[in-house]
Amino acid sequence: MQVLDRIFKELAGIDPSRLSEPVLVGVTLKPNQTAIGELPAELRPFMLLKLDYEARITLIEETAEAEIAAIDSREQADKRAKELANEHAVLATIYDAIGKLFWAEVRLTIPAATGQPCIGIAENWQVYSEDKELCPHCGIKHPSMLLDLADLPPGPSSPLEALDALLRP
Ligand SMILES: [Zn+2]
Question: Is the Cβ–Cβ distance between 110 and 34 less than 8 Å?
Fold first, then answer.
């Protein structure tokens, strides 16, 4: 069981001092998001591992091209490109598994999150639920959100113009 073994091992390797450090600083709740609890201490290493994987994957994506371009030998460059592509694929596969397990744990650990279609984590380890029906900027349901843009009559070039035409008396 390569994936689970690796996840358990890496969870055990998370530095406990990080559990009380601020994370996701600046990720505040939007008007359509509601705080439903705090991420329990037992799940914090899981989230930190998920963030670590995100950082590792992003690092490869951002540096691979320059690293390979700096290699003089064509053969060595090809070899390194294959290594990086493989490393990226492995990380992405495990990251996907971590994400699924993490959200499943959050959903079952925090009663208010069970059955919520959309949940997330904001700063200070806040768990939130998100209402996709509400405007993320205002937290209300705008008249325009009640309409299916596909139903609008053809004519104006952009959906916004079409909407404007429809709402105008
Ligand atoms: Zn709005």
Answer: no
